[in-house]
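Postdoc handover notes: sequence design on the structure in folder B. Input tokens:
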């Protein structure tokens, strides 16, 4: 029998169909229209009963190159902001295995490519450089996503071979944040920059934990200056996020709105109407401030670290940063522990040491 379930996602509603017949493995597909879902259910159920449904044939007919091309077309439509990155990652897999049919793409073959990813020199002969385990895992995740879609929606395969490929052990996440002196020196250097927007960009990153892409993609319709609130429509995890903007930052943002460009609704627009290029100004500010071993993304770590040291809980930090899970936020737990220990120490000094002396 066929069961049709209506589901909602970010793109709207769709219909998931599952056909289950005794003696046969269940098969499912997703459609945007109910009529298409019903038609597929009837045709598939009839094909299974008559012995004409052979999904394994699709795995012999399609190559991994076909898989990558179709997945990239879907990404171009649904996640255009992520297209270039995915094109690079999935393009690597296509260069290695593009001519193989999907039934030939075994877990063992993919594991060989995983090891090749790790060993490949992406630097120069004089200064060799290798991909990190975390990067290799992202490559595997992108391929696994494509295979999963091919299993669930396209019915090109019955199983995802990447599931049985071991992931690499990743190093602990980097936590580099600004000390009080470094923060003051960096903000002072940003104020002196020839790029007038740099100071506001850095302040927003420090006080909100927004990512570089979120800052550069920020548009005036997303900002409510009266309520001092930013609503991020497109974030890394695909969910909307509200970000409060308070104090000096809100004042600077209102001042920046008075001199905004009229040919672009980007908050930080460059001369061409595209997002402003601030890398040169950023590195110059770091050098003037004497801040070493610091990346722009570390401003996000700094915001999270300050939250932890201010007593914010792990779920609260995750909510501000926009993380779906708590795993990424656990790296700041030790800062929160230090803060809690200091509170307990002050309490003990105030109440219990006095009592013991009486």
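Designed sequence:
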């Amino acid at each position: 029998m066929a069961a049709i379930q209506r589901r909602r996602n970010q793109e709207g509603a769709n219909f998931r169909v599952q056909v289950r017949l005794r003696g046969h493995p269940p098969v499912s597909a997703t459609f945007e229209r109910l009529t298409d879902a019903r038609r597929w259910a009837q045709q598939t159920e009839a094909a299974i009963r008559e012995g004409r449904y052979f999904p394994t044939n699709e795995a012999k007919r399609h190559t991994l190159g076909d898989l990558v091309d179709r997945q990239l077309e879907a990404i171009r439509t649904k996640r255009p902001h992520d297209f270039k990155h995915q094109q690079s990652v999935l393009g690597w897999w296509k260069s290695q295995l593009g001519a193989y049919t999907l039934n030939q793409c075994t877990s063992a073959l993919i594991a060989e490519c995983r090891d090749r990813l790790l060993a490949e020199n992406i630097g120069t002969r004089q200064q060799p450089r290798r991909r990190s385990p975390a990067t290799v895992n992202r490559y595997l995740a992108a391929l696994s996503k494509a295979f999963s879609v091919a299993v669930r929606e396209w019915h090109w395969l019955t199983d995802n071979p990447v599931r049985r490929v071991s992931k690499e052990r990743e190093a602990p996440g980097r936590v580099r944040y600004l000390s009080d002196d470094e923060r003051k020196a960096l903000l002072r250097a940003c104020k002196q920059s020839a790029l007038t927007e740099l100071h506001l960009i850095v302040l927003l990153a420090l006080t909100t934990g927004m990512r570089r892409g979120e800052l550069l993609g920020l548009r005036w319709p997303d900002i409510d200056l009266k309520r001092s609130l930013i609503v991020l429509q497109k974030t890394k995890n695909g969910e909307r996020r509200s970000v409060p903007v308070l104090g000096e930052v809100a004042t600077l943002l209102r001042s920046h709105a008075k001199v905004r460009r009229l040919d672009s609704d980007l908050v930080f627009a460059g001369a061409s109407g595209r997002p402003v290029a601030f890398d040169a100004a950023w590195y110059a500010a770091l050098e003037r401030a004497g801040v070493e071993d610091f990346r722009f993304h570390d401003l996000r770590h700094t915001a999270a670290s300050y939250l932890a040291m201010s007593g914010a809980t792990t779920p609260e930090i995750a909510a501000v940063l926009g993380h779906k899970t708590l795993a990424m936020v656990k790296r700041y737990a030790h800062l929160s522990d230090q803060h809690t220990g200091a509170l307990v120490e002050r309490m003990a000094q105030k109440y219990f040491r006095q009592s013991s002396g009486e």
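Context for whoever picks this up: The chain has 14 helices and six strands. Don't rerun without checking with the PI first.
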